[in-house]
Amino acid sequence: MSGPATSAPPSSVIRVSGVGKTYATGHVALKDVTLDIRRGEIFALLGPNGAGKTTLISIICGLVNPTSGSVSVAGYDIVADYRAARSRIGLVPQELTTDSFETVWATVSFSRGLFGRRADPAHIEKVLRSLSLWEKKDARIMTLSGGMKRRVLIAKALSHEPDVLFLDEPSAGVDVELRRDMWRLVRELRESGVTIILTTHYLEEAEEMADRVGVIAKGELILVEDKAALMRKLGKKQLNIELAEPLAAIPDTLAPYGLALSQDGGCLTYSYTADGAGEEGAGRSIAGLLAALSAQAIAFKDLHTEQSSLEDIFVSLVRRAP
User: Fold this and answer.
1) Which residue blocks in 131-173 are alpha helix, DSSP H?
2) What sections of the sequence does the record tag as coiled-coil (predicted)?
3) Of all helices (H) and strands (E), which one includes residue 70?
4) Separation of first and last alpha carbons in the chain
5) 44 phi and psi, to 5 degrees?
6) DSSP conformational letter for 4
7) CA atoms of 41 and 314, how far apart (whole Å)
8) How many angstroms from the chain centroid is the CA of residue 223?
9) Model pTM greater than 0.85?
C-alpha cells in the first residue's frame, strides 16, 4: 500500500481534480469537476435529478471510475490506494438494501469488519443507541420498517469510524422523527471532526445544516460558496410598503429606487441588499426611500420584509446554467 499523497492542502480531506465521466453510451455525466472539501465541514451538494450528484459521489467513494481526473481522500488516491481511501469513507446510499435474514447487530458488526477494523462491541452499541436502534439489535432486517432500514444503513456507514460520511438523499421517504434524529447525529459527528457531504431535495435542511454549498447542473459544478456568503450575495431582500391610498403610477421622482407597484396600486416593493442599499444604484437606502415617500405625501399603513431562501437561489442558479 502506498503512503498518502501530499498534494492536498492540510485543510482538505477530499480533493477532486478535473474529474470527468462519460459512459459507454456516450452520455457525459460529469465535466471537469474540481472541488476541495474541508476537514470537519458539512458540505451540501445540490442539483436537479440527473445533474451528476450521485455519479460524483460514486466516483469519490471508488464505486465508479472517472474517465478523466483524479480524486484523493485523506491524501490517498481513490484508484491507486483504494483500500486506504475507501476505509476513510462511510456511505449512506439512496436505495434501501435489506440483508433480509441478518440481524441488525450482525450486519452492522460485519460492515465494520469489511474495512479491517477490529471488533468493538462498545462502538457498535454506541452507534445503534444514537440511531434509536438498540431495541432492534436482534431483529432481522427483513422485519423492519422502511425508516428503521434507513437507520441501519446509517449505522453500517458509521460502523468503521470513518473520517468522511456521505449522505445521498438521506431524508427521502423517511419520517419526521428519523429526520430529526439524523440531523442531530450529523451535528454531533461534525463536532467530533467528521466531514459530512450530503445531497438533498429538502433545501431548507441544507440551509439550516450546511457550512458550504455546491451546485451542480448538467454535469458541471457551477458554484461553490460558503452558505452565509451565498445568502448575502444572491439572497434578495424586499421591503413591501402597503399604502394608505392606492397609486395610479409611481412618481418620476421615485424612479431611482426601482420600485414595483402592485396591480391594484396598493403596494410598493423595494428590492435591496444586506446593507440596505437598493439594487438600482449606490446611495439608495430604505431611510432615503421613506423620506422620499414623505416628500411626495405618500402615506403608508404597513411595512414588511421578505428574504429569498436557499431554494430560491438554487432555482435561479439552475435556470441560468448553460
Assistant:
1) 146-158
2) none
3) strand 68-73
4) 42
5) -100, 125
6) P
7) 20
8) 12
9) no
pLDDT tens, position by position, 302-312: 888 766 666 66
Q: How far is CA 9 from CA 5, 74, 80, 217, in A?
A: 10, 10, 19, 27
If we measure between CA atoms, which residue out of 60, 10, 65 comes closest to residue 35? 60
The two most distant CA atoms of the chain are separated, in Å, by 79
d(CA 290, CA 243): 12
Q: Break the chain into its structural domains and give their ranges.
A: 12-231, 235-308
What is the assigned CATH class of domain 235-308? Answer: alpha beta
**Cell output for 313:** 437561489
Q: Is 26 left (phi over 0), alpha (psi -120 to 50) or beta?
A: left
Could you give phi then psi for residue 303, rounded to 5 degrees?
-130, 140
CATH number of this structure's domain 12-231, picked from the four choices 3.40.50.300, 2.60.120.430, 3.40.50.2000, 3.90.190.10? 3.40.50.300
Residue 115: other Cβ atoms inside 10 A: 16
pLDDT digits (tens, 9 = 90+) for 12-55: 899 999 999 999 999 999 999 999 999 999 999 988 888 888 89
Cα separation, 231 vs 139, in Å, equals: 45
Strand, helix or coil at 285? Answer: strand
